[in-house]
Amino acid sequence: MKPKICFIMTDAVSFNVLYRNQLEYIRDSSNFEITVICGGSREQLDILRARNLGEVVDLNFQRKPSVLQDAKSLVLLTRYLLTRRFDIVIYLTPKALLLGSIASTLTMQKRRVAFSVGRAYENFSGLKKRVFQGLDQLSFGLSHEVLFVSDSLVNVCLSENLLKKNKARVIDNGSFNGIDIDVLRPVEQMEKQKLRQQYRVPVDAFVICVVGRICEDKGLKDIGEISESLKSENIHFMFIGDFEDDIGKSVVDRIMREGKGVYIPANPKVEEVIQCADLHLFLSYREGFGNVAIEAASCGVPTFAYDVVGVKDSVKQDISGQKFQLKDTVIVTEAIKQAITDINFKDKYPKARAWAIQNFEQKELWQSYLDFYLHQTNKA
């Protein structure tokens, strides 16, 4: 009889982005019978079903907190799990972490695994933070094992006494999906120039790419300040990602009006944007891991980032880039100015790609995750 594995996430888009190709690897490299449970748009659910992973169950989870809707989702999830017996249930992303842990416990699923890929409340304080910590503590307490996407994330959770150390685990060196080293590769100068022409970026400018959600907690306000200080420099920004708040949009709009940047909607060919760049600027206030930093390293592009949870693991100081104190935009600006005038900057981080490959090669990481899941079924 085939072992049964169930993955629960809040939104189908997370399966299609975070689990891109990894679930196919699990399907093709094992005899697991896969079920995925989520909410999401019809478009993203159709994409997920087209991947032919197994059963896709739409329970209409909503990302935004709503006591009524969340209670309804919990009832639906519990009802579904009551009629199924899985060897292992994995739940991740904040809403699914809570609902999945409760429902799989109520229905006595054999092995329950929480997977923490980041904390939206990382920079909260006071009662608000304690409430979210309590929810994580509940989810972790109901789980047999708790995976974390990075060492710095597990360390902060342990320091806050959210779980027992013997439950916590990071697979290999962290990262959720690793890097495709064949796609994410350095390019020669001629190919870089062609890409810049394709994306309408000045060929002779110092190009800075900013990849990911465009919003305040991704450091867009700070990037706005830095761009103001660099107005007189021959620089050009490339922004790729979805707008999530007015602050991020206003910063990007201003930089574009000044002729100092381009905006590219979320694009599956993120590697081309990185390959265009001389520098990847990653001023996020919080991350679970920060995969885009190792993607940049694989392309031979250094990252300048804040030294925060998650990014501590995805940027190797002086190897794949530089880390700075949170919100110290003055020092970051000075470092960028030095990079612009340094004719040897492109050769300053020669070990970045080798470090990324050694630690985060995709298929090795996928196999490690699969080995973990198979080991869990033996405990069921």
Would you identify the regions where 5 or more consecutive residues have pLDDT less than 50?
none
Q: Main β-sheet: number of strands, strand sense, barrel status?
A: 7 strands, parallel
Trace the largest sheet across and list its strands: 3-2-1-4-5-6-7
Beta strands, count: 13
N-to-C SSE string, H for helix and E for strand: EHHEHEHEHEHEHEHEHEHEHEHEHEHHH
Q: What's the CATH class of the largest domain, please?
A: Alpha Beta
**Named CATH topology of the largest domain:** Rossmann fold
Verbal overview:
There is one protein chain. By secondary structure, the protein is of the alpha/beta class. The protein folds into two domains: 194 residues, Glycogen Phosphorylase B (Rossmann fold); 172 residues, Rossmann fold. Helices cover 44% and strands 17% of the residues. The chain is built from 16 helices and 13 strands. A seven-stranded parallel β-sheet has the order 3-2-1-4-5-6-7, with helices on both faces. A six-stranded parallel β-sheet has the order 10-9-8-11-12-13, sandwiched between helices. Helix 3 links the parallel strand 2 and strand 3. Helix 9 packs across helix 14 and helix 12 crosses helix 15. The longest helix is centred in the last third of the chain and has 18 residues. The model has no long low-confidence stretch (mean pLDDT 96).
